[in-house]
C-alpha cells in the first residue's frame, strides 16, 4: 500500500503569503516567525512536491513556472482546511478593529487579503478614524482593538508594534517657490499631524499658509497628489503619485510609535488580529 504524502498547511500558507507579499521579511512578520523558518518551510514543501516554487534573489522574490501552477491549488487547499475546521464552529466571531487613517494607504487590499486567506470564522469590522476618535470608541467598548499613533505620554498602555516615519510630500510636478510661504494641505483642528507640521515649521521659522483643508488622510494625500500643496504624511501610507519635497529645506520630522491596544480574547480572533498587525508591521 502506497503511503499518501501530506502537505504541511503552514508551509502552503507561507507559500501563498510569499506569492502575495513578494518578501520573506514581510511574510516572517505576518506569521510571527523568522525568515529562516519561512525558508525552511518552503524548502521542505518544494522537496515534497519535487519542484522549485520560488525564485529568490537579493533584489526580488517571484514565483517560478511551477509556483504559478501550484498557486490556485494551494489556495484551494488552504480554503478546504479552513472549511473543515469551521464545521463545528458556532456563529462567526465578530472582531471590531480601529486603525488610524494615517496608516491606511495603497497596501490595504494586500493586508485584507492576508487576513482573508487565513481565517473564515471571524467577521472583521474595520473602522478608520483619527487616534482621538478611536481611543474614545475603544474606551466606550465599541472597538475590540485599535492600532494608533502614540503622540504623547498621556496614555502609555498598548503594545508597541513599530515606529512610523513621516515626510513632506507633494505632486511629481509641484514647484515650491523659495520666497513664498509653504502652501500646506492639512486636516482641520484638532489633528495631531496638523499640529506636528505647524510646530515643525514654526520652530524652524518657516512661513506657511493653508492651501487646502480636508477631513481624513486620504483627502490630504489626494490634495497633495493633485498639486495643491505640501502634505505631512506617513511614509508607509503615502499615495503612489506623490514624492518627497526636494529643493527646499523643510524641517526633519520625528518618528512616532504605532501601538496596538486590545481586549481581544479567543484563538481565532487573536489570530486575525496578529495577522493584521503583522501585515502593518511589514508594510
From TrEMBL:
<dbReference type="Pfam" id="PF00126">
    <property type="entry name" value="HTH_1"/>
</dbReference>
<keyword id="KW-0804">Transcription</keyword>
<dbReference type="InterPro" id="IPR036388">
    <property type="entry name" value="WH-like_DNA-bd_sf"/>
</dbReference>
<dbReference type="InterPro" id="IPR036390">
    <property type="entry name" value="WH_DNA-bd_sf"/>
</dbReference>
<keyword id="KW-0805">Transcription regulation</keyword>
<dbReference type="InterPro" id="IPR050176">
    <property type="entry name" value="LTTR"/>
</dbReference>
<protein>
    <submittedName>
        <fullName>Putative transcriptional regulator, LysR family</fullName>
    </submittedName>
</protein>
<dbReference type="Pfam" id="PF03466">
    <property type="entry name" value="LysR_substrate"/>
</dbReference>
<keyword id="KW-0238">DNA-binding</keyword>
<dbReference type="GO" id="GO:0003677">
    <property type="term" value="F:DNA binding"/>
</dbReference>
<feature type="domain" description="HTH lysR-type">
    <location>
        <begin position="7"/>
        <end position="64"/>
    </location>
</feature>
<comment type="similarity">
    <text>Belongs to the LysR transcriptional regulatory family.</text>
</comment>
<dbReference type="InterPro" id="IPR000847">
    <property type="entry name" value="LysR_HTH_N"/>
</dbReference>
<dbReference type="InterPro" id="IPR005119">
    <property type="entry name" value="LysR_subst-bd"/>
</dbReference>
<dbReference type="GO" id="GO:0003700">
    <property type="term" value="F:DNA-binding transcription factor activity"/>
</dbReference>
Amino acid at each position: 500500500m502506497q503511503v499518501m504524502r501530506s502537505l504541511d498547511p503552514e508551509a502552503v500558507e507561507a507559500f501563498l503569503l510569499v506569492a502575495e507579499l513578494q518578501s520573506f521579511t514581510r511574510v516572517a512578520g505576518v506569521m510571527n516567525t523568522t525568515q529562516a523558518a519561512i525558508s525552511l518551510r518552503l524548502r521542505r514543501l518544494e522537496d515534497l512536491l519535487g519542484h522549485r516554487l520560488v525564485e529568490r534573489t537579493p533584489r526580488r522574490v517571484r514565483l517560478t513556472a511551477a509556483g504559478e501552477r501550484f498557486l490556485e491549488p494551494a489556495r484551494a487547499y488552504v480554503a478546504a482546511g479552513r472549511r473543515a475546521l469551521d464545521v463545528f464552529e458556532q456563529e462567526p466571531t465578530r472582531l471590531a478593529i480601529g486603525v488610524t487613517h494615517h496608516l491606511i494607504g495603497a497596501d490595504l487590499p494586500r493586508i485584507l487579503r492576508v487576513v482573508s486567506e487565513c481565517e473564515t470564522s471571524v467577521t472583521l469590522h474595520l473602522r478608520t478614524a483619527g487616534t482621538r476618535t478611536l481611543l474614545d470608541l475603544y474606551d466606550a467598548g465599541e472597538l475590540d482593538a485599535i492600532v494608533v499613533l502614540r503622540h504623547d505620554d498621556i496614555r502609555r498602555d498598548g503594545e508597541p508594534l513599530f515606529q512610523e516615519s513621516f515626510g513632506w510630500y507633494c505632486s511629481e510636478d509641484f514647484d515650491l517657490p523659495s520666497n513664498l510661504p509653504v502652501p500646506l494641505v492639512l486636516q482641520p483642528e484638532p489633528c495631531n499631524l496638523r499640529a506636528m507640521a505647524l510646530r515643525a515649521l514654526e520652530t524652524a521659522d518657516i512661513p506657511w499658509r493653508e492651501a487646502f483643508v480636508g477631513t481624513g488622510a486620504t483627502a490630504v494625500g489626494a490634495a497633495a497628489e493633485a498639486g495643491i500643496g505640501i502634505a505631512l504624511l506617513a511614509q508607509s501610507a503615502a499615495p503612489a503619485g506623490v514624492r518627497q519635497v526636494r529643493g527646499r529645506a523643510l524641517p526633519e520630522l520625528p518618528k512616532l510609535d504605532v501601538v496596538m491596544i486590545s481586549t481581544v480574547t479567543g484563538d481565532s480572533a487573536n489570530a486575525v488580529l496578529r495577522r493584521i498587525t503583522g501585515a502593518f508591521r511589514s508594510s
